[in-house]
Specification:
This protein is of the alpha+beta class. The chain is built from 19 helices and 15 strands. Helices cover 45% and strands 15% of the residues.
Length: 443
């Protein structure tokens, strides 16, 4: 039997992050139906629904998964917290990677590793770096699902036009700036093409720090104990924000604010020639551009440093407090999600990294590689990244708030309202209070 885990102080934990967006939940029924909350719209949401439909067809009359879109990651997490408080949770829920420690602290889920052990299910086919991220104190808490990596997309056609080698993409921030300057086109006082565009997204800084072997938070990046502070007030992070600000001020980089879709649209339309972005939308970016798109590994802030990127995206959690029959049905669905067939189809439709190692050799994924060879790069980059304290990612219950605080710091710098040092100092102080309150609530 899968053992439930119920939190003793859910309200105190939830209060440290964003306010809940309302209740409303759909628990599983007695007719073999289980509920899966997911957090993806657009093509990726359609791919999730297609996966669910295939599973339902294969298990008709036995198990039926009802997939319910709950908004973005933050919306889904907030609705889940409200559902936990009301005692009406879904069977399964998709949570972004930075929600991992919070989900553990809520103590309202059944660890996937325990379910697998009880069922005699081997984890050997799961991508080891992904298993490592979601394993805390020896327990694999959730099933890695939509695994992404940060990539550098660039306009190969534009590179050729300005005399840059399209097969030699920039590898450091300095090289990105040099290429972006040459790629920028101005006529009649107007900028026709910017060399660089990036949404204001703290995830880019998280990955840049890891790729430069700089821990994001203390206590061994949260893996050796509860973090007490973020590691933002240092010359390397200040230089990252200063580099970005300088490109904007020189008219080389386009500032689109916090909307990732606007950054992607600017690149696909040819308005900007270099874009740091998630692998999750690789198919959309490649097929939605009228020029040849290059895909490169994420650049380092400083040359010659160690570290590497870690997985973005999210995982699927199994919620406790449901009948054993529903837990077993949920586990059947998770096994299908992790299967080579499902992962090959999912990765081919999106650009996400296959969670299943065997999926890389599946005909469906091999077919997409024949047409889009760059689909292999996110997984290769993750596997080739040096495993260090920094590259494992920060494990902290307040990571969702930290990302938002970093967004505010970046925004202040790009708008000229603060220097990088001042913006980061203010954000660090603010995060210190948030972390202290959170740690007290779960102590």
């Amino acid at each position: 039997m899968f053992r439930p885990r119920i939190a003793p102080a859910i309200a105190a934990i939830a209060a440290t992050l964003l306010a809940a967006c309302g209740g409303g939940s759909d628990a599983g029924g007695d007719d073999g139906t289980i509920t899966f909350w997911y957090a993806m719209a657009g093509r990726n949401g359609e791919a999730i629904q297609a996966m669910v439909d295939t599973f339902n067809q294969q298990h008709e009359g036995e198990i039926r998964v009802e997939a319910v879109y709950q908004g973005n990651y933050y919306d889904t997490l907030n609705k889940l917290k409200a559902a936990i408080q009301s005692g009406q949770t879904p069977n399964l829920v998709q949570v972004f990677e930075i929600g991992t420690q919070l989900m553990i602290d809520l103590q309202s889920s059944v660890p996937f590793g325990e379910m697998a052990e009880e069922a005699g299910y081997s984890l050997d086919d799961l991508q080891p770096r992904l298993v490592d991220y979601y394993t805390v104190d020896g327990t694999l808490y959730s099933l890695p699902f939509n695994a992404s990596a940060p990539m550098l997309y660039y306009n190969k056609t534009a590179f050729e036009e300005v005399g840059l080698d399209p097969e030699q993409p920039p590898q450091t921030l300095e090289e990105v700036a040099e290429a972006a300057e040459r790629l920028t086109i101005r006529r009649g006082g107007q900028t026709e093409r910017y060399g660089y565009v990036a949404a204001i997204d703290g995830w880019l800084i998280e990955q840049m720090m890891a790729n430069t072997d700089l821990p994001y938070c203390d206590q061994g990046n949260g893996r050796e104990g509860r973090p007490t502070a973020v590691n933002w007030t240092n010359p390397t992070v200040e230089n990252m924000l200063g580099w970005w600000r300088d490109l904007v001020e020189r008219g080389i980089a386009l500032n689109v604010g916090r909307n990732n879709n606007d950054a992607s649209a600017a690149f696909q339309s040819g308005r900007a020639a270099i874009l740091p972005f998630t692998a999750a939308n690789m198919r959309d970016i490649i097929t939605g551009s009228d020029f040849e798109v290059g895909v490169a590994y994420y650049p380092k802030a400083e040359p010659g440093t160690g570290g590497g990127v870690f997985n973005g995206g999210g995982s699927i959690w199994t919620m406790a407090g449901h009948p054993e029959s529903e837990q077993e049905a949920a586990f059947e669905f998770l096994k299908y999600v992790a299967s080579p067939e499902a992962q090959a189809t999912w990765a081919a439709a999106t650009g996400y990294i296959p969670v299943s190692l065997a999926a890389r050799d599946h005909p469906v994924f091999q077919d997409v590689l024949a047409e889009y060879p760059d689909f292999a790069k996110p997984g290769e980059q993750l596997l080739e990244s040096e495993i260090t304290v920094a590259s494992r990612g920060c494990l902290m219950g307040t990571m969702p708030e930290a990302r938002d605080q970093m967004n505010t710091a970046i925004e202040r710098v790009l708008l000229g309202n603060a220097t990088p040092a001042d913006a980061l100092a203010a954000a660090t102080e603010s995060m210190g209070r948030v972390i202290e309150t959170y740690n007290q609530s779960v102590s």
